[in-house]
């Protein structure tokens, strides 16, 4: 039953008032982790000195800024190349093999599609070489080729143009010309996520042989669950990552909807407390952090990984040779994996998964969309805060973050470490290579900003199926209600008893009320759920 205590399943029953429901979530309330994780982390170019990124929570405001100038200077470690790393696109479970999918990563418009001839996911530049129409609006033809629906040009998995309908069959083979080929990005599937290399130059065709995406062993271990989710976020990559690295905001920004440790002596209602976070081994490819007995890892540019010790299972087993009983201990573990994808200025994408090695049966019987209900509520609860925060940071300039923000306690250690890494190795912000002016998109109305349908539901196979099914159920309930009333009206009084009429009318009223409640539920879960911190 431990799985129920740490998962949102037990609180996902259909409520009478959705906004009163306290959804549990597999997001961690305190980013504890345990040492010895199985996350592949490139340790080349490690900094020899440990980086302690925050000072005591009890210090005076007269102390110096935690950003120390000597740590901001260039080092022999080199600079971080934003275009020399693999980037995740989408979880395989949320990609439909029957159609191409449009995505934006690092400012690049790409199309992801399933090549059944090679049995592999392919990532192309989302532009037909003919007249630059988006290939993502096309289709997969009967021969398994990607077809541009503007003029019918067809491409195989290598990007070669295989058919141009307008070219005469007895004329020159223009479809074989190099300019007729689609631009192909190297791609692979790692941990059930499609990754691509953001450079279509042919010299990177076999880059997978030299460098692979980060491997998370728990996602390939059958003893762990691995339910995934994804959502487009209306604030940038930098703010997304630092928010996920910040455990101190959880009791406040997610009050009442996220489990936090019970404390005997609480200073306030929410129960915030000093946190001991230390960051070490900062280098070009990320850094490692410790909290008490655990380790957190940032694998640049996208992955933040942490483990949760849950306890131990004590199992009694019989020795087959002697018949004596022996006790075996299995460490219960829950891993938090956040994959943060730069999309464009002011926009990012989050892929999350929380594998655990206990309570696996829960994920087998509970639909994935039910987990996403609580997880989306968590994302919504601080979404507006972070959207506004990002604009304030842009007003002062990202390079001035350490001067504009006062971060005197150790609870901000990971956030400070990320900003230091960004300034020291990565140029202070994502390298968009001049594709954008640097200005953030305008802030839309709150209902549009916090919309779930276009940012999650249409991109999630489970939530999309649930959304369609519940809409059908709503219509069915309305039809039943009207039909029952019609039956009562059309039936002669002498043929129907008063009790039967009362039962039919009552059923009709209940069906109509259920359809109205279901419409409200669908709107709250799949479209828009406002979050007012003042009344939490």
UniProtKB/TrEMBL annotation:
<keyword id="KW-0479">Metal-binding</keyword>
<dbReference type="InterPro" id="IPR036922">
    <property type="entry name" value="Rieske_2Fe-2S_sf"/>
</dbReference>
<dbReference type="InterPro" id="IPR017941">
    <property type="entry name" value="Rieske_2Fe-2S"/>
</dbReference>
<keyword id="KW-0411">Iron-sulfur</keyword>
<dbReference type="GO" id="GO:0010277">
    <property type="term" value="F:chlorophyllide a oxygenase activity"/>
</dbReference>
<keyword id="KW-0472">Membrane</keyword>
<keyword id="KW-0809">Transit peptide</keyword>
<dbReference type="InterPro" id="IPR050584">
    <property type="entry name" value="Cholesterol_7-desaturase"/>
</dbReference>
<keyword id="KW-0812">Transmembrane</keyword>
<keyword id="KW-0934">Plastid</keyword>
<dbReference type="GO" id="GO:0051537">
    <property type="term" value="F:2 iron, 2 sulfur cluster binding"/>
</dbReference>
<dbReference type="GO" id="GO:0009507">
    <property type="term" value="C:chloroplast"/>
</dbReference>
<keyword id="KW-0408">Iron</keyword>
<dbReference type="InterPro" id="IPR013626">
    <property type="entry name" value="PaO"/>
</dbReference>
<dbReference type="Pfam" id="PF08417">
    <property type="entry name" value="PaO"/>
</dbReference>
<keyword id="KW-0150">Chloroplast</keyword>
<dbReference type="Pfam" id="PF00355">
    <property type="entry name" value="Rieske"/>
</dbReference>
<feature type="domain" description="Rieske">
    <location>
        <begin position="86"/>
        <end position="196"/>
    </location>
</feature>
<keyword id="KW-1133">Transmembrane helix</keyword>
<protein>
    <submittedName>
        <fullName>Pheophorbide a oxygenase</fullName>
    </submittedName>
</protein>
<keyword id="KW-0560">Oxidoreductase</keyword>
<keyword id="KW-0001">2Fe-2S</keyword>
<dbReference type="GO" id="GO:0046872">
    <property type="term" value="F:metal ion binding"/>
</dbReference>
<dbReference type="GO" id="GO:0016020">
    <property type="term" value="C:membrane"/>
</dbReference>
């Amino acid at each position: 039953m431990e799985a129920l205590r740490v998962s949102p399943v037990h609180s996902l029953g259909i409520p009478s008032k959705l906004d009163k429901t306290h959804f549990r979530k597999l997001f961690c309330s305190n980013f504890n982790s345990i040492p010895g994780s199985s996350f592949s982390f490139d340790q080349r170019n490690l900094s020899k000195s440990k980086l302690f990124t925050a000072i005591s929570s009890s210090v005076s405001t007269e102390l110096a800024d935690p950003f120390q100038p000597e740590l901001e200077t260039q080092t022999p470690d080199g600079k971080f190349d934003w275009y020399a790393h693999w980037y995740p696109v989408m979880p395989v479970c949320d990609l439909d093999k029957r159609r191409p999918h449009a995505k934006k990563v690092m400012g690049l418009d790409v199309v992801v599609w399933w090549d059944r001839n090679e049995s592999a996911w392919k990532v192309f530049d989302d532009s037909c070489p003919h007249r630059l129409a988006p290939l993502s609006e096309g289709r997969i033809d009967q021969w398994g080729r990607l077809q541009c629906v503007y003029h019918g040009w067809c491409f195989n998995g290598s990007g070669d143009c295989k058919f141009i309908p307008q070219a005469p069959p007895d004329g020159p083979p223009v479809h074989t010309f190099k300019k007729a080929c689609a631009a192909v990005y190297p791609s692979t599937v790692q941990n059930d996520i499609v990754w691509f290399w953001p450079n279509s130059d042919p010299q990177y065709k076999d880059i997978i042989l030299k460098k692979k995406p980060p491997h998370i062993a728990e996602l390939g271990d059958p003893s762990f669950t691995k339910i995934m989710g994804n959502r487009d976020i209306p604030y940038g990559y930098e703010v997304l990552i630092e928010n996920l690295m910040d455990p101190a905001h959880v009791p406040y920004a997610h009050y009442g909807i996220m489990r936090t440790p019970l404390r005997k002596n609480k200073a306030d209602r929410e129960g915030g407390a000093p946190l001991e976070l230390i960051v070490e081994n900062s280098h070009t490819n990320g850094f490692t952090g410790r909290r008490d007995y655990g380790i957190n890892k940032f694998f640049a540019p996208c992955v933040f990984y942490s483990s949760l010790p849950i306890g131990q299972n004590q199992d009694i087993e019989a020795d087959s040779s002697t018949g004596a009983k022996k006790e075996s201990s299995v460490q219960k573990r829950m891993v938090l994996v956040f994959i943060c994808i730069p999309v464009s200025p002011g926009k990012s994408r989050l892929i999350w998964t929380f594998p655990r090695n206990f309570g696996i049966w829960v994920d087998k019987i509970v639909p994935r969309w039910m987990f996403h209900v609580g997880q989306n509520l968590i994302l919504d609860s601080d979404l507006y805060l972070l959207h506004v925060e990002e604009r304030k940071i842009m007003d002062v300039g990202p390079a001035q973050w350490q001067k504009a923000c006062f971060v005197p306690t150790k609870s901000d250690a990971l956030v400070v470490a990320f900003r230091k890494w960004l300034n020291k190795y990565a140029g202070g912000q994502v390298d968009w290579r001049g594709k954008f002016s640097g200005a953030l998109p305008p802030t839309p109305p709150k209902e549009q900003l916090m919309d779930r349908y276009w940012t999650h539901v249409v991109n999630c196979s489970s939530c999309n199926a649930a959304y369609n099914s519940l809409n059908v159920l709503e219509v069915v309930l309305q039809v039943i209600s009207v039909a029952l009333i019609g039956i009562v009206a059309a039936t002669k009084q002498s043929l129907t008893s008063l009790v039967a009429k009362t039962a039919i009318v009552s059923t009709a009223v209940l069906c109509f009320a259920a359809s109205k409640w279901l419409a409200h539920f669908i709107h709250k879960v799949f479209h828009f759920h406002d979050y007012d911190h003042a009344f939490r």
